[in-house]
Design brief:
heterodimer, A: 255 residues, mainly alpha, 10 helices, disordered C terminus, B: 255 residues, Rossmann fold, 2 domains, six-stranded mixed beta sheet, four-stranded antiparallel beta sheet, 8 helices, 10 strands, globular
Chain lengths: 255, 255
């Protein structure tokens, strides 16, 4: 109980240190384009109250949610085959490693030429960001299933399908989920990147527009809102994961 | 050699090569029904390899294994395996782990849990049905592994150094329980061990294997004290003589 409180107090102190540093940096100021913490917070409230923020997120979440759902579904599916078959691994993994390391911003013009400036291109950007880490994590987790558990499944007459469904996937589950979390955070980056580089819509539009009229507090408020949302969403994912794992594993250090 | 009805398992001229390494050479051995046979030998003598070939988990390079007169090609319902490192699923409760062999055979949940319950009771784990493996001690985990093997009701129980990962006191208790099991369950036990005392204590028949390549050096049948009380076996002159004799013949192979 005390340890739990202690963790929360430390997190609060950590946030306070960052916000204080931000406030001081804004007051010095380090740049005329860098607002103070309080200016940004009041801009944030203003955007929230007049509904701009909600309309923006309705727009931004579209490619984000679609992209993440596609990445999760196909990413885990492809990752499963990557982990099960050496041949498939060699065939497919290089593509995702290239995807992961490619300078995405430079590729966006190509995507726009191929798929236009609409939702499709944005979904693509989210997928390019989110899918590789999901595929590679799933593949690695599946490949590293403890050999003794697979042997146990075979010794007790499990079919290949049963061994995959009842042993390999549950054993890989925590790492698959870790990959999913990394994929989701990468997806958030992809969604904003696509709104900055393709067409300014949603939150990307607030950022672009406030910058163009030198309303820096609003710009930083929009950026901060993405970070807050991403952290909240990752926390929810973690709760879901813990719920699914129930009492079967020791709780992780993350919270 | 004709098909013998009082042997549950017969190993005939089995060779096993890993690449150019010869692991087993022309190994033949009979396992009398209803008895416990130990495979004893120094490490690297191929006893686990032989056990896995009997289990159908490894193919023999040549030769054959007969279980009840049928040639072994794959794991079958007539054999159950107890693993050295327990091979329990960490995400599954004790009762699910014990019932897993039956789950893989498609038995309905209530039915298989009823059976699992019975064997959990038998190995002395009642009250732990809904615990998870990480909450149990090593000895208790192996009891789960044993209950899982018993619950599929196979005629042949294959045990791969089942007590090597538990502490000395637990091990002695296990050995006593094993004698009770051999007496009460009408099963054939094949027991891999590297402990001379353990082999002499629990076995009706001891096959001493020599390493590189593995072959049967000697078969010993301790008979004089088998009917004695579990507490007095270790004081029997015959017990002590056999232990000494085996050590005398094995010592030159221990580096």
């Amino acid at each position: 109980m005390l340890a739990k409180h202690r963790a929360n107090i430390l997190k609060l102190i950590s946030a306070l240190v960052v916000f204080t540093a931000w406030e001081i940096a804004g007051r010095v100021p380090v740049s005329f384009a860098f607002p103070t913490f309080f200016e940004s917070v009041s801009a944030f409230w203003a955007l929230l109250i007049d509904g701009t923020m909600f309309k923006a997120y309705a727009e931004t979440l579209k490619p984000l949610v679609i992209g993440i759902l596609i990445s999760a579904f196909f990413g885990i599916g492809i990752g499963l085959f990557v982990g099960l078959s050496r041949g498939f691994d060699w065939l497919v993994s290089p593509i995702f490693i290239v995807m992961q390391t490619a300078p995405l911003a430079a590729l966006i013009p190509l995507l726009v030429m191929a798929y236009g400036i609409g939702l499709t291109s944005k979904v693509f950007v989210v997928c390019i960001m989110a899918m590789p880490v999901i595929v590679l994590n799933t593949g690695g987790a599946v490949r590293n299933t403890p050999a003794n558990l697979i042997e146990m499944g075979e010794a007790f007459l499990g079919s290949r399908r049963q061994v995959i469904m009842k042993i390999i996937l549950p054993a890989a589950f925590p790492i698959i989920f870790a990959g999913l979390r990394l994929g989701v955070s990468a997806g958030f980056i992809g969604a904003i990147l696509s709104e900055l580089k393709i067409t300014p819509t949603g939150v990307g539009d607030i950022i672009t527009y406030s910058r163009s009229i030198a309303d820096y507090p609003s710009m930083y408020a929009a950026i901060a809102s993405i970070i807050i949302l991403a952290v909240l969403f990752l926390n929810v994912l973690e709760r879901v994961e813990n719920k699914l794992l129930q009492g079967s594993r020791k709780p992780s250090a993350l919270d | 050699m004709t098909k013998s009805t009082d042997n549950a398992v017969t190993v005939r001229n089995v060779y096993k090569n890993y690449g150019s390494t010869e692991a087993l050479r022309d190994l033949s051995l009979d396992f009398p029904r209803g008895q416990l046979t130990s495979l004893l030998g120094p490490s690297g003598c191929g006893k686990t390899t032989l056990l896995k070939i009997i289990a159908g988990l490894l193919p023999a390079t040549s030769g054959e294994v007969l279980v009840n007169g049928e040639v072994v090609k794959a794991p079958g319902p007539d054999r159950a395996f107890v693993f050295q490192d327990f091979a329990l699923m960490p995400w599954a409760s004790v009762i699910r782990n014990v019932a897993f062999g039956l789950e893989l055979r498609g038995m309905a949940k209530s039915e298989r849990e009823g059976i699992a319950e019975k064997y959990i009771n038998e190995v002395g784990l009642s009250g732990f049905e809904h615990s998870y493996p990480h909450e149990l001690s090593g000895g208790m985990r192996q009891r789960v592994g044993l209950a899982r093997a018993l619950s599929v009701d196979a005629q042949v129980l294959l045990m791969d150094e089942p007590f090597s990962a538990v502490d000395e006191q637990t091990r002695r208790k296990f050995q006593e329980d094993l004698l009770g099991l051999v007496k009460n369950e009408n099963k054939t036990f094949i027991f891999v061990t590297h402990s001379i005392e353990e082999a002499v204590y629990v076995s009706d028949q001891i096959a001493i294997l020599l390493p590189r390549p593995s072959r049967v050096m000697e078969i010993i049948r301790p008979s004089g004290f088998r009917h004695k009380d579990v507490d007095s076996i270790r004081r029997e002159p015959e017990y002590l003589d056999i232990v000494d004799r085996i050590w005398a013949s094995l010592r030159s192979y221990v580096e």
